[in-house]
Amino acid sequence: MFPTEILLEALLNGLMTGAIYALIALGLTLVYGVLHIINFAHGALLTCAMFLVWGGFALVGLDPYVALLPVVPLMFALGYGVQRWVIGPASHGEDNNILLVTLGLSIILENALLAVFRSDTRTLQTDYAFDVVPVGPLLLSTPRLIGAAATLVVTGLLWLLLNRTDTGRAIRAVAHEKLGAQLVGIDVRHIYAVTFGIGTACLGVVACLLMPIFYVNPRSGGVFVLVAFTIVVLGGMGSVPGALLGGLLIGVVESYSALYFGDSLGQLGIFVIFILVLLFRPSGLFGARA
Amino acid sequence: MTLRDVLPHLGFLFALAVVPYLGVSGPTLNFLIAVLIVALAAQGWNVLGGFGGQYSFGHAAFFGSGAYATAILQVQLGWGAWVGLGASLVVGAIVGLAIGFLSFRAGLRGSYFALVTLAFAEVLRIVANAAGFTGGAAGLLIRLQPGFENLQFADRRHFYLLVLGFVGVALILSRWLERSRFGAHLVAVRENEEAAKALGVDTLRVKLGAIALSAAITACSGCLYAQYYLYIDANVAYGTWISVEALLAPIVGGIGTAFGPLVGALALHGVGEATKLLAGGRPGLDLVVFGGCLILAIAFAPRGIAGLAARVLQSRSAAREGR
Amino acid sequence: MLVVEGLTKRFAGLLAVNNASLSVAEGSITGLIGPNGAGKTTLFAMASGFLAPSAGRVLFTGEDITTEAPHRRARRGIARTFQIVKPFAGLSVRENIAVGAYLRHPQRAETLASATLIGERLGLGPQLDKPAASLTVAGRKRLEVARALATEPKLLLLDEVLAGLNPAEIRDILPLIRAIRDEGVTIFLIEHIMQAVMTLCETVHVLARGEIIAVGPPDMVCADPKVIEAYLGPGAAARLNAAEAPRA
């Protein structure tokens, strides 16, 4: 048995990692809930965002947190364009096609980054990367704490966007009843692209929060994306609160299994959960879709 | 199925069989063998994904199981390579049946099936990377012992012919799917499962039969891979690369057709090589082209190269009739 | 031939079919009618094995098949069509029919011959090599029947095969249904077009709110006040009678 302090620290670390996971999953689940597609390019888009943040820092010394300002709108534009002019037209509205087009996109993005940046792993050197905040007997990493707090803020903003704005109402209308939304004059293709854009903008936020504590190489996004799929399935495809809870839960599970079984088997636990949920509870642990 | 049904297929195989004797260079032969191994894996994917409409994103699970089956038998237990080949087929089919039974019984299809197969392949990769009998992260090295009984050949052309033999068997099997009751049932499941049931098709059994056959073919490809390079590790055998390759080739070549995977693999890798030559040695560029081909095929050529060829032939014969 | 005893289906609190019993005599054309949402298609789905009943039994030629899978029932000789047609869109019309024909003919040549014959019989001759996706609504309905017929059934369940057809198309298809019966295939059909029911069926069962409320020859059933009320609302029968009374 480990002493309580270590267990507590693992719990808090798990929750903080889980918050980042949740934010990645949030974008994925939003796109699923509205467009009913599984976006395989989510991981590659995250990698793109991380390279953007890294590039900003390496070229002009842009602080990753300040980089939120340009990176988030850029990622939104990228997501909007990709859905509007690539995924939408190329897939002819068939589920299997959408899956393959997003797979094709992820192959292109990942390998284009590989061709440009090679497979080297890069990190950012910030002054605050190793800052800690004392909480009781524990020392918590400041950037991770910021990440967790930012996740909550972004989730709240997203909720406001979906529930308090006209665009949000249109998004929910399209998610609920595409044909009906079209009949009342909502431009479904635009709303699809906006939703996809919001999903990728979430990745922009994630990239800015992640870069102070993580590295980037052309395959970085892949590390997170399968975890994000697990969270989305666990929380119920398309459910925003499900993604949040699922993210935190997976973060904690990963943290504890790494503590008990080591890193690589900790990953195994996630996939086993993923398979079991898909096989036995495909609607997710937290009930039906939002 | 009569001889006439497979005449074009036999002709194509014969044409491929003489290629190494036309004085092609060593690297070219190397390249062709690698493409044929990929084509075989893709032919396996096409049985389940093309004819059966069940898109697997984790055919690495079968490729890797085939590769590890033969490697473990030879390296750890000292058995012969031919026994290893047989074992690969059997192990592949069993892994396929197990994954298929769990997923199809749970009613998974479409994206959910794609995700679950991907996860199974990842689980196997992590386990193979950690377990002892798989050689762990260091992988397994099969001893170099050229000789027919060891499935190793001093003359690369012979290995080429061996792989082509298996590709040929898979091609004829695919052709059989186009002409048989089992194939018709499989296609019916792809098009509409409910309607197939109403017409007396045992859809679960058909899907299980398809995944077993599909997995065995892809496992055979994995076995040949291990046999050719004489080395495997978890990231190669169970890596995402082969899952992607296995589905790319049929989609680009012509999904659900006998020729599709073979034509697709040859075309894709031909273009990939050309890209590498033109753009220099940057890694990943050929894959960028592959991804582009995938999206273009889905957008503009839903039946792939085979579909385009059929369209051209049709319009030509229509033009002739018009005259 | 087909006997249904106390069949009940509950969907999360909603009683779709409630304790329905009926029988379809061998060699007959039997109808199942009822207002929208009465549970007709649900009853068909239970008879063909696509839905498991919450209670009750389904018997076919005297054997209990309540829990049998649809494909097994097809092998026994029960074929069905779908109200919302389900063509194999990517296949040709002939290949569509062949999937049904393969049930009794393992060889490709025989199957294709049988599929061609059935296709021509249902007036699909010119379209046999065209993709099923190119068929009109009437063509798709015919394809549904052709595919089901290709399984060489003893009992044919037809779910609204006339819906969406124009009068001329209906006129063409009615003799076909009768001819199929005359060859020894028992027919059980759901239909909304009363004219067709009146001319085709010997016996009609009326389902309303999940319950069988009347059985008998079509003209008798249509005069039944309970049936009129089920279609037109409570008191309708009395109003109709009152309206007719002064004239008499």
TrEMBL record, chain A:
Its main location: membrane. The chain crosses the membrane at residues 12-34, 40-60, 67-86, 98-117, 138-162, 191-216, 223-252, 258-280. Keywords: Amino-acid transport, Cell membrane, Membrane, Transmembrane, Transmembrane helix, Transport. One of its GO terms (cellular component) is plasma membrane. It is found in: Cell membrane. It is a multi-pass membrane protein. One of its GO terms (biological process) is amino acid transport. This is Branched-chain amino acid ABC transporter permease. The lineage of its organism: Bacteria, Pseudomonadati, Pseudomonadota, Alphaproteobacteria, Acetobacterales.
TrEMBL record, chain B:
The keyword Transmembrane helix applies. The keyword Membrane applies. The chain crosses the membrane at residues 6-24, 31-51, 57-75, 82-106, 159-177, 208-232, 244-268, 288-313. It is found in: Cell membrane. Keywords: Cell membrane, Membrane, Transmembrane, Transmembrane helix. It comes from the Bacteria. One of its GO terms (cellular component) is plasma membrane. One of its GO terms (molecular function) is branched-chain amino acid transmembrane transporter activity. It is a multi-pass membrane protein. InterPro entries: ABC_transp_permease, LivM-like. This is Branched-chain amino acid ABC transporter permease. It comes from Neoroseomonas soli.
Automatic annotation (TrEMBL), chain C:
One of its GO terms (cellular component) is plasma membrane. PROSITE patterns: ABC_TRANSPORTER_2 (PS50893). The keyword Nucleotide-binding applies. GO terms for molecular function: ATP binding; ATP hydrolysis activity. The keyword Transmembrane helix does not apply. CDD domains: ABC_Mj1267_LivG_branched (cd03219). Keywords: ATP-binding, Nucleotide-binding, Transport. Residues 2-234 form the ABC transporter domain. PANTHER family: CONSERVED COMPONENT OF ABC TRANSPORTER FOR NATURAL AMINO ACIDS, CONSERVED COMPONENT OF ABC TRANSPORTER FOR NATURAL AMINO ACIDS-RELATED. This is ABC transporter ATP-binding protein. It comes from Neoroseomonas soli.
